[in-house]
Structures are given as C-alpha cells and as structure tokens.
Amino acid sequence: MKKRFSDSLFGAKKGYLLVESLISLLVCLLAIWTVVVMVTYISHVKSRQTINFYAFIQLVESDKYQFEIKNVNAIDVKLYSPITKKNYHLQQYDDMLRITGIKLGHVRILTQVKKVHWAKDKECLRTVVTFKNGQKCTAYSKLATKEK
Question: Which UniProt keywords apply (predicted)?
C-alpha cells in the first residue's frame, strides 16, 4: 500500500520540478532587476545634484542679474544686481540653499544640502556645497565687488 501511495504521489506531478525551477528563475531575475534599478537611481541622483549645483552657479554668474558681491560670510552672501536694482541674500535654510530678496519670500535653489561654505578668494566667490549623501561640489565665480 505504501508503494502505490508514493507512486501515485510522484506520478501525478511529472512537470512539477520544471515549473518550480521556472518560478525560482523568475524570482532571481526580478531580484537582479531591482538591484540594477536601485544602482541606476543612485547614480542619477548624484549626477542630478551636480547638474543642479552648476545651474545655480550659472544663475549667480549670469548676465541676467550681473550680481555684485556686497558682503561674504561663511554662512551667507549678500549680492546686489544693478540690472534689477535689488539686493539679494544667499543662505542655507534647513536642508536647502535659497535666495531671498529684502521683502518676504524665497526661491529654493538646491535641496538635500548638508553644509554650505562661502569665502571671498581674491576677486572670486568660492562656493563649497556638501550634500547629504557626502558629495561635495566647489566652484569659483568671478563677480564684481560692490562699493559701499
């Protein structure tokens, strides 16, 4: 009786090992695909932060505003635009870099910022931004100095 029971148990499932191996292969491919997507996403985040940083530098150096340096501290920069005839203030606020005017309101320029450091180096404004993921970007912007 035991022999018949075991024969009927395995005799009815001839394709079971094939289906089981196909499902395990599908699960493995799904896991590999997930890892590849995550690695791709992480690399795009780094390149996106670099692109955003240099877009910010391009704004600071643009002819649209022709910013002049009024005052530079390690934590903020005060700029003047002869085009708009307005004063601007660059600073870090929470985890973002923002630019504000004299009145209320601000424009978020960079996000996921851990630390920003500015310094005046000869006739250049040195900007060093460290992002939360440890990436560090540095730029030197040649800006005129506003006489007080």
Answer: Membrane, Transmembrane, Transmembrane helix
Q: What is the pLDDT of residue 43?
A: 75
The structural domain count of the chain equals 1
Beta-carbon-side half-sphere exposure of residue 141 (alpha carbons within 13 Å): 27
pTM above 0.85, yes or no: no
In a domain, 116, yes or no: yes
Q: Are strands 68-72 and 76-81 parallel, antiparallel or unpaired?
A: antiparallel
Is residue 97 in a domain?
yes
CA distances in angstroms from 21 to 34, 35, 85, listed in the order given: 20, 21, 72
Q: Is the pLDDT assigned to residue 72 strictly greater than 70?
A: yes
Measured from the Cβ of residue 97, the count of other Cβ atoms closer than 10 Å reads 21
